[in-house]
Model the fold of this input.
Amino acid sequence: MFTGGSLLYGSTGRPDLLGAAHASELARAQYASAHRLAAGLPDDAAVYPTHGFGSFCSATQSEGTSSTIGQEKRVNPVLTADEERYVTDLLAGLDAYPAYYAHMAPANAAGPAGPDLSPLHQADASELRRRIEAGEWVVDLRNRTAFAAGHVPGTVSFALDDGIATYLGWLIPWDAPLTLLGQSPQQVSAAQRELARIGIDRPAAAASGCPQDWAGGQPLRSYPVARFADLEAVRHHRPVVMLDVRLPLEWADSHIDGAVHIPLHDLTARLSELSAGEVWAYCRTGHRASIAASILDAAGRSVVAVDDRYEQAADAGLPLTRPAPAGAAA
Done:
């Protein structure tokens, strides 16, 4: 059964992409649809969704790679819970989704022409500097460790090997000029193709090589990369700002005591909310923290990127706040 974006592995599609006003109605329609499938198909029928493997189109994150109708009957909330429980839990568990989603439906409905994936205009160091000084987005595609070790001032890090489309598409203002910096033309071309899939069809410029080439003789910038154990050690010796850039539901589930919460997708608009001092940015895996660190560095802040899995925070001795167990006394 090809289930599109509705019945996913262990989850379902989100019903709020047309707006909160339609979410409850669409959740109930999705519940009815899933039950029609379950009633009309044999348990050994294979399920093939179009997405859901970490996609923000999924109501919850899934790591599944295959399934059957019988398996979904056993594990999928849409088929194990009654309708009211499914709808209530689904709506309560929805988190933010990428801003570029708002542009996808009109683009798909209009049927845009195929993207132009021909080589981009090549910018030299002086042009790159002009673009940065004009406030344009100049994106370094190298891995996050290499970026931290040395980069052109004012550039931001969206590592190609981490998958750039989701968060770059979420943060960059729609139709803003974009320049891509890669170690090779092939790296730039790969990024160009990824971005075309979300509607960013034609970046303004590109450059290949190394930061020294792009800087045109100007000094590079760098910042430290650390682990949660380093954060636990340093916070006892000097004041630091601990910045959590995870999504709201991740923060609600658990966070470091004393941390400031600004989701990555809100960071550029809320930089002024961060108090003075050295900022240690963290997330769940280090991916979003590296993007946040580059944005803060471009804004002139002293920053450290925590390149570590969040599960290590407790092991490092950092104090965590977690919600009280259900039914616990206030």
In short: DSSP finds 14 helices and 15 strands in the chain. The longest helix spans residues 20-40. The chain has a mean pLDDT of 91.
